[in-house]
Amino acid sequence: MKISAPQADELTGNSWFSGHTDGVELHEAPVTVDEFDAEARCEERDELETAVFGGGLTVAGTLDLGTDVHAIYVVRGALRARRLVLGDAVLVVDGVVEVDEWLFGGVTEGLFEVAGHQAESPTGPDALLAHVRGPVVALYDRARREFVLRKGGSPRTVADLVPQVRDGLDPDLREEISIAANLRARLIAGDPIF
Q1: Which pTM was predicted?
Q2: Which of 41, 114, 121, 137 is in the most buried spot, having the most CB atoms within 10 Å?
Q3: How many C-alpha atoms does 102 have within 13 Å on its Cβ side?
Q4: What are residue 112's DSSP bridge partners?
Q5: How many CA atoms lie within 13 A of 65 on its CB side?
Q6: Quick check: 52 and 27 in contact, CB under 8 A?
Q7: In the 8-state DSSP scheme, what is residue 11?
Q8: d(CA 96, CA 94)
């Protein structure tokens, strides 16, 4: 069902959609999909996707927000996925985020908010991560210009990463971009990062 941007903003209690789109897809019932590729979804529609998942969203495989995709997704309730790759899209979850394997967010233009918290907000990444459950978290905090790393809920540092992530960085890229590329490649390959 399509609703207007003001209706979607009223429903979500924020102004995520007004000024960015005219219509927003509303999924009132819980949605379960095998894979969720924001770039492929936008190409299929030939426009940026804007959607509210009113009954939560479950992705059996990978939810990938892509690059150069500025879609807007708001999930009311829980977001569950095997793997979550943050990107240039907006992803807002008002409940919890549960990942089976890992959550990765590199140096992107996107926005990731869970239960009203963002990694870059003044409360910092710990407030966000209080609502994220998963064995491995690796995301870049643009405000503090540092990686937020967790294994089993415990904080880790860049020094704890395997040498394959820290060494052999591309000299033509900023260090954090090169580290992010190495992290992503290892996670997708199923290789450990710590």
Answers
A1: 0.94
A2: 137
A3: 24
A4: 91
A5: 26
A6: yes
A7: H
A8: 7
